[in-house]
Amino acid sequence: MAQRIGALGNVALKDGRSVVIRNLRETDWDALATFGQSLPKNDLLYLEDDFSHPELITRLANAAHAENWCQLVATTKTGTIVGYTAAQRMPGWSNHVANIRLIVQPEYRRSGLGMQLAHAIVEEARDMGATKVTVDMLAALNAGQAIFSRLGFAVEGQLARHAIDRDGNLHDIVIMSAFVRV
């Protein structure tokens, strides 16, 4: 499948730093593992996927060219991954829907990187043929909800005590969605 270039490439952040947003490559295993290990324990509590486990990193790196799944990373000039996002089209009767995941390293939050990655992955989901894009997050993640709201997403529902973190605590999930093609 041809990769869209418009939303990818060099990006200047609000704080003057710059990153490159590009497709994840199979050769990114070490950089992605380092990214996962660098995330604070509190972040890992609230992620659906545990980026600190080598098995997950292997699965993500091996899926770099998977059909109906696009993964993007934000890297510094040195190749350090500071952000990850993915869109995966759903199977069956929901194959017009893509679900998004997004995580940014704490040192790059509030720099506009989350918004840049969100915009890029929504464009990629549209290019994969998705007409609806969803994102699930903990209800307490106000910054994440703000990012997707600015992109036209609206809360579609909330599931009470639907997620359990790695410490056994229950959390509400907010489901946001946007139609990206009519």
Stated plainly, the CATH topology of the domain at 9-135 is called Aminopeptidase
**CATH homologous superfamily identity of the domain at 9-135:** Gcn5-related N-acetyltransferase (GNAT)
Biggest sheet record? 8 strands, mixed
**Count of individual helical segments:** 5
Q: Would you tell me the overall average pLDDT?
A: 89
Helix fraction bin: 25-40%
CATH-level-2 architecture of the domain at 9-135: 3-Layer(aba) Sandwich
Q: How are the strands of the largest sheet arranged?
A: 1-2-3-4-5-6-8-7
SS-derived structural category: alpha+beta
Keywords: Acyltransferase, Transferase
Domain N-acetyltransferase: 19-181
Protein name: GNAT family N-acetyltransferase
Pfam family, one: Acetyltransf_1
Helix/strand layout:
Blueprint: E1 9-12, E2 18-23, H1 29-38, H2 41-46, H3 54-62, E3 69-75, E4 81-89, E5 97-104, H4 113-127, E6 132-138, H5 142-150, E7 154-164, E8 170-179
Parallel strand pairs: 5-6
Antiparallel strand pairs: 1-2, 2-3, 3-4, 4-5, 6-8, 7-8
Helix pairs in contact: 1-3
Protein name: GNAT family N-acetyltransferase
Domain N-acetyltransferase: 19-181
Keywords: Acyltransferase, Transferase
